[in-house]
From TrEMBL:
Cross-referenced PROSITE patterns: HIS_KIN, PROKAR_LIPOPROTEIN
Protein name: histidine kinase
Subcellular location: Membrane
Lineage: Bacteria, Pseudomonadati, Bacteroidota, Flavobacteriia, Flavobacteriales
SUPFAM superfamilies associated with the record: ATPase domain of HSP90 chaperone/DNA topoisomerase II/histidine kinase, Homodimeric domain of signal transducing histidine kinase
């Protein structure tokens, strides 16, 4: 309440100051430009106030400008008395026009604000529907796979060990997929509520990358993952959980959306006091006009395959920014996409690769 009152008081003060300053400038040149032009300048000033301030400070500016115009610019000067009938009529018209101008400009701004709010609500509804559509697919599919495989195992049908192992593998893959979606939803909820706080500690980035690759092996992907590590890569002060999740999301995306048996490359380097992680693939890349949107929440490419919640890359961006880093995307000249993560962080003098 105090803040709102203080803001309104500031609007009153700035409205008065603006009208007075414009009037002083006009007063210095009143013999050159004439009082009729000054009336127009003051009306423009009132319109300017109405563009940014609430209705009462705007009306105050309109009334004040009319009184100043009368007192300082209409003969006889320095009195509110107007001797000329034409000037009396002009003053009356100025007063009316200033008030109407103030109200209409304010109303237009109010209508624009309502229209923007309506558009924002429509976008929110669209995002909500997109999320429901995506999640209905992403959650139903693994759940159906788990139920189907479990029913098959519980049935009295005689199965070979190989068939049982295949069903168990399907349950495991579906469970991981389900867990990944739930984790993404929880992480997005944490980002939205602002409770993500990075817990920085010394980490071996090389170790994290290979841990992620091992975790992804259960997906039975056919792509070849190549890891290039620059010499003498030190330990970095990062949030282990956040950076691991970022690399997992980017690699998982590359596995899902790139051709079978293609190569996914991870480059780890440290130059100019900046850690750089680059993940390159040999897929189709991204449409140039959509690159700026891929990190938006729930955004999915227009021609992307069904499924996916559109949360993965948004979470990547949030987790990297929580560690004071940046993530960018560009298309490769030779085809495919390249995600580049840059984080300025502390490093240790100890080099974990020296003892290997």
């Amino acid at each position: 309440m105090f803040s709102r009152t203080s803001n309104l008081n500031n609007q009153y003060i700035f409205s008065i100051i603006l009208v007075v300053l414009v009037s002083l400038a006009c007063f210095a040149f009143k013999e050159i430009i004439g009082y009729k032009v000054i009336a127009f300048i003051l009306l423009v000033t009132v319109s300017f106030v109405a563009m940014f301030y609430r209705i009462v400070p705007t009306l105050l500016a309109a009334v004040l400008s009319a009184l100043i115009w009368n007192f300082f610019f209409i003969k006889p000067y320095f009195t509110f008395h107007i001797g000329n009938t034409e000037d009396q009529f002009m003053f009356f018209m100025y007063f009316v026009i200033a008030l109407i101008n103030a109200v209409l400009t304010f109303k237009i701004r109010q209508i624009e604000r309502i229209a923007n709010e309506k558009e924002s609500k429509l976008k929110s509804i669209k995002l909500y529907n997109t999320l429901l559509d995506s999640l209905s697919h992403e959650l139903k599919t693994p759940i159906a796979a788990i139920i189907g495989s479990t029913d098959a195992l519980q049935s009295n049908t005689i199965m070979t060990e190989n068939q049982k192992e295949k069903l168990l593998e399907e349950i495991s893959i579906a469970s991981l997929r389900l867990n990944n979606q739930v984790e993404n939803l929880l992480n997005m909820s944490r980002l939205e509520s602002g409770v993500i706080v990075s817990k920085m500690d010394w980490v071996d980035l090389n170790e994290i990358v290979y841990e992620v690759i091992r975790a992804l092996k259960i997906k039975s992907y056919s792509q070849k993952i190549v890891v290039n590590v620059s010499e003498n890569l030190p330990l970095f002060k990062l949030d282990y959980g956040l950076i691991e999740h970022v690399i997992y999301n980017l690699l998982n995306n590359a596995i899902i959306y790139t051709p079978q048996k293609s190569t996914i490359t991870i480059n780890l380097s440290y130059t100019d006091d900046t850690l750089q992680i680059a993940i390159l693939d040999q897929g189709n890349g991204f449409p140039e006009d959509e690159i700026a949107l891929v990190f938006d929440k729930f955004y999915r490419l227009k021609n992307s395959r069904p499924g996916g919640s559109g949360l993965g890359l948004s979470i990547v961006k949030g987790f990297i920014e929580a560690q004071n880093g940046t993530v960018t995307l560009e298309n490769r000249v030779e085809g495919g996409a390249k995600f580049i993560i840059k984080i300025k962080t502390e490093v240790s003098k100890f080099n974990p690769t020296e003892n290997e």
